[in-house]
Amino acid sequence: MSSAASDAAEYTIYVDGSCQDNQNVTAETPAAWGVVVVVGDNQRGSGSGEVITELSGLVITDATMELFLGAKVGSNNTAELSGVAHALRWILMDGRVTHAIIRADSQYALQIAQQNWKAKANLDLVKTVQALWEEVSSQCQLTGTWVRAHRGHKWNERADHLAFRTMQGEQPLPLDFWKPGMR
Q1: Is residue 29, in this structure, part of any structural domain at all?
Q2: What whole-number distance in Å separates Cα of residue 52 and Cα of residue 102?
Q3: 81-109 tens-digit pLDDT
Q4: Is residue 117 one of the residues assigned to a domain?
Q5: Which CATH number belongs to the domain containing residue 84 in this structure?
Q6: Residue 86 belongs to what domain range?
Q7: What angle, rounded to 10 degrees, do the helices at 76-94 and 154-167 form?
Q8: In whole angstroms, what is the distance from residue 133 CA to residue 22 CA?
Q9: What is the pLDDT of residues 39-74, one digit of tens each?
Q10: Helices in 1-49 by DSSP H: which ranges?
Q11: What's the CA gap between 60 and 42, in Å, rounded?
């Protein structure tokens, strides 16, 4: 894709989180997030558009680590919020984005990020995510939309794959060798 085409494009960013055991979570509970950045997506789930980058990582619960965002435990919710945070950080670091849609299968993460719901837990992480949302919103047109989980939506399934594999300590499959539904 040409630089001029990507500069004027709408970016659709899919985020997802994964947690090994989402009960009795602690700082040691494995949890991870995945992000898929797409240009030219029609948002219908067919996998239209071009993936321009993929990101994934573990939920960091150690306040001494560089990428600590405020998560105290590894959980599905902290993984989903971390995915939103890393998508927003990518937008800020990229510097070309003027219009972005963040799509997640977590109503919790989207509503908390946009300050539509009041958080009762994960307050430090929530504060970080909300501050990032406000900063990005001041620099570009930003919206968040929900997508139904595990229903064959290609880029949501890809974000799930990235999060799940990272949480398992495995490398995600390259996009060319991956099919929707493969965890």
Answers
A1: yes
A2: 15
A3: 999 999 999 999 999 999 999 999 999 99
A4: yes
A5: 3.30.420.10
A6: 3-172
A7: 110
A8: 26
A9: 998 877 667 889 999 999 999 999 999 999 999 999
A10: 3-8
A11: 33
CA distances from 84 to 34, 179, 182 (A): 9, 23, 22
Chain length of the chain: 183
The total number of structural domains in the chain stands at 1
User: Per-residue pLDDT tens for 105-153?
Assistant: 999 999 999 999 999 999 999 999 999 999 999 999 999 999 987 777 8
pTM confidence score: 0.91
Quick one: tokens of 106? 């977590």
Confirm whether 181 is domain-assigned: no
**Rounded to whole angstroms, how far apart are CA atoms 19 and 31?**
4
Tell me phi and psi for residue 86, to 5 degrees.
Answer: -70, -30
The DSSP H or E segment spanning 123 is helix 123-139
Does 102 map to a domain? yes
Rg (CA), the chain: 15
